[in-house]
Each structure stands twice: as structure tokens, then as C-alpha cells.
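Sorry, explain these C-alpha cells?

***
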Amino acid sequence: MHAHPDRPSQSPPPWRQCRNRQEAAALSKPLSTTMSSLAEGAHEENPLMEHHPLVLDPTGRSRLQEEQALHAADGPVLVDILGEKAWAIGSQELLMRLLTDDRVSKDPRQHWPRFISGEIVGKWPLYIQVAVNNMFTAYGTDHRRLRRLVSPAFSTRRTAQLIPSVIGNTDLLLDQIAGLSTHVVDLREAFAAQLPVAVISDLLGIPQTLRTGFRTTIDRMWNTTSTPAEAVQATQDVYKMLSDLVAQKRSAPADDLTTVLIASRDDEGDGSALTEEELTDTLLLVIAAGYETTINLLDSAITALLANPGQLTKVLHGEVTWSAVVEETLRFAAPVSHIPMRYAVEDIPLATATIRKGDAILASYGAASRDPKIHGETTGTFDITRTDKRHVAFGHGVHFCLGAPLARAEATQALPRLFARFPRMRLAVPMEDLQPLPSIMGNGHTSLPVHLGPV
């Protein structure tokens, strides 16, 4: 896999050059050849595959409209995600069913014909998201082997051991923010982004010299407005940093997860050890997932509370717990809207369509968490008193996020400390002026300017 980023990229597909979504939709039909024709053994036409796909906006600006379209459909919706077709699932019940179905795989090497044929290498900006060789894309026994190696790092005991790191880093960041000469601060940059980077770096033993580079490069990998060439460059940069980290830890082992994974890689045992590729890709998974989900969770929680002062008053007066705030934020604004991809191992007949063998499936966690069939007409309202806060923000089934307890712990420790330190904090711009992340995947804001107010 490490050789792939060096392959030449091609020009962006025509819809990437459109001035607006209407032009993109008009151009989508020539691109919408049926995925089922790629699947070995496809035996009949699927009428939905001939419809124009819903073109997902790479800027993230149409997220709410896209969620509404997924909710309106009684089943899977054909979407175009940066030029590739997939069945998006916005129903929470259906998504949970598919995520526990043995006929659904995350391994493109075995089950996605377009990947196997090499048609997306160096051409699709999200190639690295599906090409990594770790438990995120593994299937069956390989997934169980890889997850077993990593799961001890996220055990209840290990998460509890990281709480002092969370508290210490939170207090340090708040001290730094309080010492700024201006009372208007970008909290995404100064707080929400810094805390998970510090905690994940403590977990992995990433030295200070590498932390900023990892963070900015991961941001580039999540930016779905990047060209294929820019995505390739981000991939090359992150693997260079991962190689440097592994080399440092091999020469100077320490009490951290990176050293543990290297030991598993270098041990010769029963064949369950990591390969070198699995080692670097597992580190990439822990860094990217541990950083991106938590920064967006903190960003969205702060934003929602400041935009709803009545809700903030309830939690500050102890009428509602901070855990309830975190769960409602995960439901209301899932940190990751879509995660590509999964693949049908065989035909999956559903009520309104059949997902054919080899078809790609897009888990739309944002839409599924706000499913009106679960949460009714108030699904689009942030309400920390809501009794039913069911969501799938951290996935479901065998690929449920191992870092979910740590993300929850970070938020429940950091948010009360932030609001206790700055009780008069308020948004510095109207809510509608906050800009979404330029990403189909990540769900947050490019910045979060606030007035700190008197301390």
C-alpha cells in the first residue's frame, strides 16, 4: 500500500470543477454506471441504480439537506461521494442491522471490485480512508486479530489511567486561554483541537516535535475539497511522520501504546503479530480517529450550549448531567457524518432495493443518529433533557469505536471545567456565520470564535 501514493494522480472528475450543486447533479448521470455491473454474478438490473445519485457536497455546507433526503427515503439512497457510488444508509434501524450483518464487509481488497481492479488508486481523494490495512478495514478473523492487539489500550482501566492526563491538559489549556491578550478566542483552535491531540499523544508517546505535524496532516486528510494530488501528498506526509515515530520508539522504547504495538510487530510468535504495514496503519487509525471525533464532539457541544442558553443553565445548575450533554451532542451532531466504505459480500435484498454483491455501502452516522423515526419531529432540536438519546455516532457491531469511552471521558471532564472557568462566555458571531468543516466526513466548524467575557 505504501507504494500507492507515489502513483500519478489524474485530474478531478468533471463534477469536482462545477460552480454549484445543480451543475454537479447535471453531470452526475454519465458517471453513474451501475456498481452492480462490476460485481461478479450480478444477475438482474436494479432500477434505483439508474436514478441520478444524490451528490454529496464536499464542502459540508449541504449536510442538513442531505440528511433530510436520506430520512425521506424508505431505504438505502444511491449517492455520489467524490465520484464513487455507494448506497447511503440514513435509517438508524437499517444501519444497525447492516453493521451486524455478515454479508457486509469493510475489506475492499476482498469485496470491492473497483478497488481490486485498481480504478480508484491515485484518483479518489478518499483512497487512504479505505486502503489502510488495520482493524478499520479488516474483515472476519483478521479484524478480530487486530482488534485484540489494540483493545487493551482502551480498556476501562487504561481509560481511567488517562483521566489525569485529560484533567491536566485541560487545566493547562484553560490557563493559556485566560492569559491571552484578547477576549475573543477561537475555541476550536485553542481548546477543542489541542486537548485530544495532547491526550492521544500521551497515549501513543508522540513527542512534542511531531504533534503539530500530525494534527495538521490529519486535518488535510479529512478535507474532502482536496484534489487527488493533495490527498496523495497528505498520505505521503503522514506515513513519513509515522515512520519517524516508529524509528524513535524502536531506538528508545517507553511506556506507551506505540512501544506496545512495535513489540507485537517485532515478536515472532504464533503468527498473530502485526505486519509493518499493519503497525503504521494501526497508529494512523488511533491518531486520526482519536483526534477527529473528539475535537468535533467538543466543538459541537460548546456551540450547541452557547446557542441554547436555557440548556446551558440547566446543566450549570445541576438539573442535567454533563454526560447527558455529551450524549445529546453525539446524537444531535455526530462527530463523523459519513464513514466510507463497506461492501456487500453477496446480494442483500431490502424492502425497496437490493444491494448487489460488490456494491459499496456508506454508513451515514449523522443522519442515522438524527433519524426522525427514532426521535420524532424534535430530532433537529438540541435538547439535553431528551429521554431517548439513542445514536450511532461511534458505530455499531464489531467495528464499534474502541476509543468511545475515552472520547466521552475527555468531554465530560473538559466541558464543565471550560464553562466554570469562563461562565460569561458567548459566541462572537451569529450562529449562522459559523462555517462547516470542508468535509463530507467530519462534522464541525472551521473555527469557533467566542467572547470569553470577564473571568
